[in-house]
Amino acid sequence: MSRQLAHHSHQETKEPRYRQLARILAHEIRTQHSAGDQLSSELALAKRFEVNRHTVRRALDELVAAGMVTRHQGWGTQVVDRRLDYMVNAESKVTHNLAEMGINTETRCLSQGLSRPPEAISQRFGLADGECLICVDTLRLVDGMPLTRLRHWFDATRVPDWCERYRGGSTRALLDQHYGLRLSRASVRLEASQANRDDSRLLQCPQLAPLLVLTSDNVDESRRLVEVSVSCARADRVSYHFDFLNER
C-alpha cells in the first residue's frame, strides 16, 4: 500500500480503501486540477497507490457521483469542475458540513469589535440611531486556499464578552457552547458582485473577479434575530444549491 494511502488507512481504519482513495483524489482535484483536465488512467492510479483496479474504479465512481469528474469510453476520466458544491438550508453549518465531506477547513479571525452596521442591517435588528453591533470579519480557507470572506453582525446583548472568547474557528460552535444559541437561517439572499482590492488580496483572485454574496438572517429557537452574516465567495471555487423542502 502506498505511503499516502497507508497514512489515511491508519487514520480511517473503518473506512473502505476505495473511499480513502476517493478523498485523496478529490483533494488533488480541488487543489491541483482545472475543469477539463484528465486524470491518470486507472492502471496508472492503481500502480501509484498500490491497489487493484477495482478499488480505483470504485473510487472514481465516488467522484462521478459527487459531480467532480466524468468518464467516457476511450477518453478517460475528466475533471468537470473545481467548484465546491455546498448545500444551503436552514440548519446547514458550513464548517461541520465540509468536515463531514472530508474537506480540511480553517477559519481565521481578521478583526472584530463594536461597529455601526449599514442601514439595511440596522433596520433588520430594529436598532435606534447610533446603536452598534458586534462586527466579526473572518476568512475561511479550504484545503489551505482562501474560499470566502465573511462579515458577521451579532446582537451584542446576546453574546457578551464575544471578543474575549472568539479567536477563530467556527462561530456556530462558540455560539452553541458558550451562549446556548443554536441558530438557523430565517432568510437567505444570493447576489453577484465583483472583487474589490481587499477581496482580491484576501481571496487571492483578480480585481473585478466574479463573487457570490450570500446574506443570511440567522435566528434562535424563538425566531429572534441574533446574527446577519454576509459571505463573499469566489465564484470559480464554490457553487450553492438550496434545499428548504425538507425543513421542519
Automatic annotation (TrEMBL):
One of its GO terms (molecular function) is DNA-binding transcription factor activity. Keywords: DNA-binding, Transcription, Transcription regulation. The keyword DNA-binding applies. The keyword Transcription applies. Residues 15-82 form the HTH gntR-type domain. SUPFAM superfamilies: Chorismate lyase-like, Winged helix' DNA-binding domain. Gene3D superfamilies: Chorismate lyase-like (3.40.1410.10), Winged helix-like DNA-binding domain superfamily/Winged helix DNA-binding domain (1.10.10.10). CDD domains: WHTH_GntR. NCBIfam families: C_P_lyase_phnF. This is Phosphonate metabolism transcriptional regulator PhnF.
